[in-house]
Amino acid sequence: MNCAQLSRRANELKKQLSEGQGDLRVVRYNLQNVYRELLVTDLEYALDKKLEQELWNNIFKNHISSLQAKVRDKMNPKRSELQSMLTLTLDSATGFFLQLLHELCSAFDLELPFCVKATRFGVTKKLRKRFQKVVIPQISSCLYICQYCLVHLGDLARYRNDNDQAHMYYNHAVTLIPTNGQPYNQLAIVSAGKSDQLSMAFYYIRSTRSNIPSQPL
C-alpha cells in the first residue's frame, strides 16, 4: 500500500480503537504495523503528521497507563492477572521499538554504535523489497526518530523498574541529538527515582536549557 492507502487504513483502525470495535488487541496490533510501515517507508510524511506520537499514545502509552492504574488498585480481584498482562504489554512494546529501531537503521543505512543493522544478519527478499520503496529522509529526521525510539525504550524499562537499562537507553538518546532536552528530562526522572538529587537537578537544568526544551510525552 502507498502512503495514502496506509493513512486511510490508519484512520479506520484509529476509529475502531476509539470506539472499542472488535478485538482491541488485534486492532492495536494492526494499527502499530501500519504506523511502522509509514515511518519506515516515508518518514518525512509520517513526522509531518506526527504519527510517531500517535504510535506511542494510541498503541502503547494509553493502554499501559490504564493497566498501571488497575494494577495499583489493591482491591481489584484481577490484580494478579492484570500485572501479568502489564508485563506482557511492556515486553511486547519493547520488542516493537527494538525492531523498529533496527528497521530504521537498515532502511536509512544508518551506522549507530548501539544498533546493528538488520542487513548484517542477512535481509529477506521481502524486507529488501520494502527498503527499495523507502523515501530517503533528511538525516535530522532519521536521528530524531531513532532518538524517539530510544527514549521510549527507556520509558518502558523504567515502567519495569529497570532504572539501569532506562539510564542506558536515555544516554544513547542523548548521543544522537545532544541539543534535545527530552532525554535529559527522562534522566532526571530516573535520578529522582534513585533519590539522587544532585543528578536530578543537573539533568533537569540540561533539559530546560537545551536548544529543544523537553516537551510532555
Automatic annotation (TrEMBL):
<dbReference type="GO" id="GO:0070034">
    <property type="term" value="F:telomerase RNA binding"/>
</dbReference>
<dbReference type="GO" id="GO:0000184">
    <property type="term" value="P:nuclear-transcribed mRNA catabolic process, nonsense-mediated decay"/>
</dbReference>
<dbReference type="GO" id="GO:0005697">
    <property type="term" value="C:telomerase holoenzyme complex"/>
</dbReference>
<dbReference type="InterPro" id="IPR045153">
    <property type="entry name" value="Est1/Ebs1-like"/>
</dbReference>
<dbReference type="Pfam" id="PF10373">
    <property type="entry name" value="EST1_DNA_bind"/>
</dbReference>
<dbReference type="InterPro" id="IPR011990">
    <property type="entry name" value="TPR-like_helical_dom_sf"/>
</dbReference>
<dbReference type="InterPro" id="IPR019458">
    <property type="entry name" value="Est1-like_N"/>
</dbReference>
<keyword id="KW-0866">Nonsense-mediated mRNA decay</keyword>
<dbReference type="InterPro" id="IPR018834">
    <property type="entry name" value="DNA/RNA-bd_Est1-type"/>
</dbReference>
<feature type="domain" description="DNA/RNA-binding">
    <location>
        <begin position="168"/>
        <end position="215"/>
    </location>
</feature>
<dbReference type="GO" id="GO:0042162">
    <property type="term" value="F:telomeric DNA binding"/>
</dbReference>
<dbReference type="Pfam" id="PF10374">
    <property type="entry name" value="EST1"/>
</dbReference>
<feature type="domain" description="Telomerase activating protein Est1-like N-terminal">
    <location>
        <begin position="50"/>
        <end position="162"/>
    </location>
</feature>
<protein>
    <recommendedName>
        <fullName>Telomerase-binding protein EST1A</fullName>
    </recommendedName>
</protein>
